[in-house]
Amino acid sequence: MKKFPFFFFILYFVSVLQAQHSTYTGEERRAIKSLSEKEIEQYRLGAGMGLAKAAELNHYPGPKHVLEFIDTLDLSEKQTKELEKIVEEMKSAAVHLGNEIVKKEKMLNDAFADGVITISQLERLTKEIGDLQAKLRFAHLRAHIVTKKMLTKHQILLYDLVRGYNAEDVYKH
Question: What is the pLDDT of residue 5?
């Protein structure tokens, strides 16, 4: 009879332990603990990753997406060529910076994994990663600003509509 309460105690204890699992569970198996495989891939491909939302959702169209709607937006040949150039420049910068971010994150990860991280190394690597992330975001946001300057207000309105955004205040900008 005494085993019965002990069984419930163990069952309770195990359920409490399971409820306390970290949201990081499983991530300890990653090559770079701070980045998922998808994030690494997106950095390496120069993907937008939502870095330009401040522009995109405030009527500053993204050049890559504008090119998806050449006919709908009635883009001229000149606009199309300029947009292609903007996309190329942004992509080139984003791929380079994304690869540098992955490299620095791996260095940070490895220093922790090897148990050799120092405060000065931590400070240097986090600053470098922060600077790279700022440059990457700048590259994406800059492309949106340059794109807006070459479009008419009507094209921006159409862009917002085909992207599913509220375009009511597009003419305020």
Answer: 66
